[in-house]
Amino acid sequence: MVFQHRVLHLAEGGLDRLQLLQNVDAVALFFQHSCNAPHLTLDAFQALDRGGCALVHASLNLMVCFDYFIPLTSIGYQGVRVDRRQWLQGMAGLTGLVALPAWARSGHGTDLRGLRVLAGTEFDLRVTSGHTRIDGRRGHTVLVNGQLPAPLLRWREGEQVTLRVTNALDEPTSIHWHGLLLPYRMDGVPGVSFPGIDPGETFTYRFPLRQAGTYWYHSHSGLQEQQGHYGPIVIEPRNGDAVAYDRELVIVLSDWSFEHPHRIFAKLKKMSDNYNFQQRTVGDFIAEAAKRGFDRAFANRTMWGAMRMNPTDIADVTAATYTYLINGHSPGENWTGLFALGERVRLRLINASAMTIFNVRIPGLPLNVVQADGQDVQPIEVGELQIGTAETFDVLVQPTQDRAYTLVAETNDRSGFARATLAPRMGMTAPVPPLRPRPTLTMKDMAMDHADRGHGAMDTSGKLAHSAVGHEKMAHAAMQHGAMDHSKMHHGTKGSEALDSAAMAASLEAPQRHDHPKGPGVVSLAMNPVNRLHEPPAGLEDVGHRVLVYTDLKSLQRVPDPRPPEREMELHLTSNMERYMWSFDGRRFAEVREPIVFRYGERLRLGLVNDTMMPHPIHLHGMFFELVTEAPPAHRPRKHTVVVKPGEKMAVDITADEPGEWVFHCHLLYHMHAGMMRIVSVRDTV
Fold first, then answer.
1. Is residue 33 within 8 Å of 25, Cβ to Cβ?
2. Cα separation of 276 and 239, whole Å?
3. Both ends of the chain: CA-CA distance in Å?
4. Which of 347, 414, 470, 528 could bond to 438 as cystine, CB 3.0-4.6 Å?
């Protein structure tokens, strides 16, 4: 009993948790003895509890002891009986499991062979504050039904669902059903579609299911989404699936930080590149000078410095604070999905992150893309795809070898990755590819690369021909445009003829106007933005395999409304990146008094011009839109979220057939929080 007396002595002496951990020899001795002892006395557990460890209620049948979950068969006043095998298994494998739903647990993919069973039509969801463990470290979370990610909701097209959401937090909450077509009062955006759910209250969502596919849900209150308030949705087709498969695995990608999200935002406001630890160094300059010559390397650095811009500013929040998760598991925890040889496995990829764009690939397995944002597409085989924040893609893979495969989701700035394993048996692993070199921005990302348009001022690598324009002029020339009452732009002008794709293409190539307010929140404007839907994302241009681009996507079924647009309007994505100010048309959400008005039933074309040097996943609530590509209008891809590349000018066609007030915003959470959001009002009359 010496081990027990030592623990009791340490705890009764008033040592805090850190001091107790410093006496880890006694604790290790306690663990070692407990693994071989048939019984453990309650006094010893209580001593650990007083010393800083947490004694969990018997109803959970778990004890947290120095960041480990230990399963207990019983807890009583006479003592605790622990089976040795249970103890060892718990020490090895139960870290963080208390907050993981069954579908997200490693090795528990959903097998759909012959299974088409609804989860139900009525649900009770409870939003609570809790804790979870990532890599053994304890962090605060916002949980739905005590789970991270939130429960997988399985519905069937054509039925009506009822969801009673109870708020057990000490602050308001909400749930937005991302990508679903529903009455706007059920959309779940506080202050727009409903008041929100106050602490202690229950709100009932009720709506018919008018679609099938892969979707997700998340909080639209504050920054709760960053804290774990998100979960997947799978809606089964009413008349059978257009995609044949044997097994389904739901893959929820997310980013996790032990920092409070408001602290992250405060840091970004103080220094927008706070989390960028991949900036160019003296060593990079020496290497560039050796490759390109000193003069060109120096001119390149001078140019970026004069513009006060950073070519490595790919992502605002990076692996410096984030751990990237798949189904709540870190790369080290290695979530594993099982398959049988020869099966067609459907991977439902959902990017539920707050701020991260992922590049997804499975070395050794091609990805057959069959769905985008819940909408069936004509199958296209690729080696890699980028999935923007809030996007979903369904892909088919067919492993034919008795080995493991690594699913790697590398962040677009290459600072970190999420990782999972696909294998025929648990315990198998495959090599994890190393992080590839981080990409850098070029003049094209500033909409200043004219080489492809015959101007010859710059080449495609972003090098500036200094005889063409000086640094100061290039940095500020775009600021010389006059201001104009932009409210007129929102209502548009109905032309006598509808715009066809050729006319739109011509308009995209015209010199860009910036008829919107300017001020401290707008420091850069795209001088010559171009359509980049056909281009691979930054860093994926020369990877040696095919990369999915938006122009690869074609709707499998005929789109509901292929009419040409009756009118057009344009919105600019604007920012002062250094001061972390984000907006549409130079105005933050708090500064806008009037909504963007769509006329009910009209067909319109919305142009998006990215005046910033970052990609933005832009999401429209309540309606789908079609990307304006060279595909036949009846088969253009339908999406609810699209990533607009830096310096890009692209367009989407929208049928305004959902009356009500809807939110239109950047789905990078801190960009939206900073003001990159607007309200779209679909009305019978303007």
1. no
2. 49
3. 82
4. 414
